Write the structure tokens for this entry.
Amino acid sequence: MNLSWEGEAEDARAAAAAAAEHDELVAHTTGEVIRLGNEFAEIMVRRVDTRNGARLLIESPKSGQWVSLCPLELEALTWQNTETFSAMIGHPFGPLVAAEATNPEEDR
Amino acid sequence: MTDQSGTLSDVRRGMIPAHIYNDREIFELERERVFGRAWLFVAHESEIAKPGDYVVRRVLDDSFIVTRDEKGEIRAHFNMCLHRGMQVCRAEMGNASHFRCPYHGWSYRNDGRIVGLPFHQEAYGGEAGFKRKGQRLLPAPNLDTYNGMIFISLDPEAPPLVDFLGDFRFYLDFYTKQSPSGIELRGPQRWRVKANWKIGAENFAGDMYHTPQTHTSVVEIGLFREPKAEKRKDGATYWAGNGGGTTYKLPPGGFDERTRYVGYPQVMVDRMKTTFSQAQQQVIGEDGFMISAASVFPNLSFVHNWPRVADSDDVLPFISVRQWQPISENETEVLSWFAVDAEAPEEYKALSYKAYLMCFGSTGMFEQDDVENWVSLTNTAAGSMARRLKLNSRMGILEDDTEVVPALTPEQFHGPGVAHTGYGEYNQRELLNRWADYLEQPAKSATALEVGAPAETAEAVQA
């Protein structure tokens, strides 16, 4: 008997795509991997080069979650205060701002 | 609960019912009336120097996160998640802008404010079901600092720390402020001994009498320049405010010669002269006394000594801060820190640390000598015969309570409080008198905080 759920194939495709993207980024690591942690979190940071520029890949080995940030996004971090991070930490397991559903109507 | 009034009046006479060093009922009273009320040392600012730094420290069974928040303010949060009571921080030390409870993921800023409950909306219906705004980890009822030493009190109505310490601050400065930068702490080493917490506190407060006997071997191996431990009777013991300690008598000379004699380099001596008050300098320079061990009621002690650190006649001082953290009536966790003037030369700091390790801390020779006695005393105090014995703690006074040797005059001793030379148990009696004062006063009831209740209510609960 096979267990399955609605949208299973779509989830599998999304996960595979994300894993492929991640592997691609890791394959282009430059320099040392930085690891830091405290009793609440452990994190790996690496510089990854793309054909046209560099990004910072930040990963949580425990959850497998990762994000790759461009220099402008990183600069935006420098404008933040603790409240921004409190809001992110206080809303765990998901993004603070939900991704907008693509509305074909708006693209016209 | 046994009526302890007889025990306390015996203690006030200097006759100590032996069982107080291993008695469950006494310990429960201490938990409520001494440790529930007095100002207790938890950390030094140098241990949490930067924003986000924290250490986890205990007051008996209560765990506190002592932290410097992002704005630089020092705080002590009761280390219990507001949700189900899990310890929020379990590492002994760290640096974090936020703490996250491992049980359900509730998160807090390091200033104690709650920032997140997973699924707040879905699980509680948002603010309507759980009022998140304004909720914070329970702060220690009282917190204050002196020379970077962080103290808390579980009593919201505790008198100000400055009044609690009183004139003992004069002596505390010798240990904690030899320069404008104060001290930095390394440690603590922690270990447990099967001994009652009061014994160490009494010993450090004033027991110069045990040195020639208990610490014979330390003198025999030539760790100290003075060949005779009996010299301790030439020193003075002093009691001021809520603490007291011992001193050594120094050879003739002025402030410079005498501080250099114990091994301080001139550069540190010069800073002491601009930092210590005139009276503080007179205690050393004119009266000829150098501070050694001391205790602050109830369970904080200090030691300052100057062993040989190499194969020569050169000695070098060290300072240690220590706490006798009660585990039970017959077990104590000792926390031992190395302390050093933050402005001291690096080479001095390294040698001073070596001097500390030789004498105190888990490897210290004094430590081994002392604990053997304290464990034995505690074991013996548990038996039925100990309840028939009142130990004599009246050294230094005659039957009519007059002093064997009169107290030093203000011209002989420029520090505050009362000081005596010769062997005596003045300070041990003072410490236990404070203990009796606290044990006599019933504790007030405390208020309870209802977490996240939409209409905040606090109801009195019997403490």
